[in-house]
Amino acid sequence: MASLPKEPPEDAKKQSFWMPGNYVRTVHRTEKSFQACNDIVACFTERAKVEKQYAQQLSQWSSKWKSIVDSRPLYGSLMRAWQSFFTSTERLSALHSSISQSLMVEEGGRVKTWQKEIFPRKIFCGFRESHHNKTSFTRAQKPWSKKLMKLEKARVAYHKCCQREQAALDKEKQANENTELSPEKKQKITEAREKVTEEKEKIRDRYEKLLEDATSYTPRYMEEMEAIFEESQEEERKRISFLKQTFLSIHRHLDVTNDESVKAVYSELHHTLMSINEEDDLRWWKNNHGPGMPTDWPKIDEWVPPVKKLNRKKREQKQKKENRPVMIGGVKVRAMYDYVGEEGDELSFKAGEVFLKVEEEDDQGWCRGVLSGGIEGFYPANYVEVAE
């Protein structure tokens, strides 16, 4: 029999890859990768235009000042030194013009050609890879989704039945305390409570069987989903590897200076580019959008009774009138559920913890107790049972 969860849910918003329909992020990754390629081409086409404009400005500056210098009364080594600035500028202009051409034609053309090969389309279905992944994931997840739906219906039914049983228990308790009710009436109330308890156990048994069925199917479900996911990862691995080489090729075109400060910039850029790692990228995706994400596998979600808020003023007034005595030595009780005190005079404890009850339950459903550490305070009576 499944037990009460000890830890808070890891995937409260059901965003895990394993939950129904959440594989779409991996399916849409193909489309986003295609768009990223378009953005890369657009980005470096714009950079190519900048390089071309810079080359034209260098050439215009050189032509203007070269004709001016030729008419100036300088000669010899001083003239040659000045003219050498224009020669080097013309070479720089040609170099940046070449860079512009390489970025636009060579790199842009290479990415576009690769795009056509790596992103084949299917008529009326978008990208072939996306369609294949969506179809495969849907087929693999369909049986699991059905089991989850049945399990959720069983959980809801079980919790509703727990609520009915609690109401019947409260009614039975009130009836037993009412001396004016006839034994026959009390017997009928007890039988009604027993019937609800029997119904709850039947529903819980179905709940547990459905959970067992889902749990036994989980390994097969995981194996099929991971196999499809790894196919998608392999295609993404190829894309990451290609784009890494593309970035490195673009870097080689742009790294044209020997200036130490500029070299430092390109060195840092190169270091960043060389830090591209297929395995690290794929691992990140897996842990954030794939099988590595934390998930809440189905398990029994125990019902916890509600707590009535303690009216302290009313309790104090009644205690003064009744002069309720303190229990000598106390009675050992065991917590059935976790409870965190909302006020400073309320106890906090964990399910299974044993402590002393030193004052009987009042008409609000609260008792006074003392924890093993000596802390005294109030606690809800329906959260404990007498420890044997």
Helix and strand arrangement:
Elements: H1 24-70, H2 76-118, E1 121-122, E2 126-127, H3 128-177, H4 183-254, H5 260-274, H6 278-289, H7 312-322, E3 331-335, E4 354-359, E5 366-370, E6 376-380, E7 384-386
Antiparallel strand pairs: 1-2, 3-4, 3-7, 4-5, 5-6
Q: How does this model look, in words?
A:
Residues 1-6 have low confidence and may be disordered. The longest helix has 72 residues, at 183-254. This protein has helices at residues 24-70, 76-118, 128-177, 183-254, 260-274, 278-289, 312-322; strands spanning 121-122, 126-127, 331-335, 354-359, 366-370, 376-380, 384-386. Strands 6-5-4-3-7 form a 5-stranded antiparallel sheet, with no helix packed on it. The chain has a two-stranded antiparallel ribbon with strand order 1-2. Helix 4 crosses helix 5 (260-274). It is elongated and about 125 Å long. The protein is of the alpha+beta class and 388 residues long. The chain contains 7 helices and 7 strands, in the order H-H-E-E-H-H-H-H-H-E-E-E-E-E.
Weakly predicted, low-confidence segments: 1-6
Principal-axes shape call: elongated
How much is the radius of gyration in Å? 38 Å
Biggest β-sheet strands, sense, barrel? 5 strands, antiparallel
What keyword list fits this structure?
388 residues; alpha+beta; five-stranded antiparallel β-sheet; two-stranded antiparallel ribbon; 7 helices; 7% strand; elongated; disordered N terminus
Short description:
The protein has 388 residues and is of the alpha+beta class. The chain contains 7 helices and 7 strands; from the N terminus they run ααββαααααβββββ.
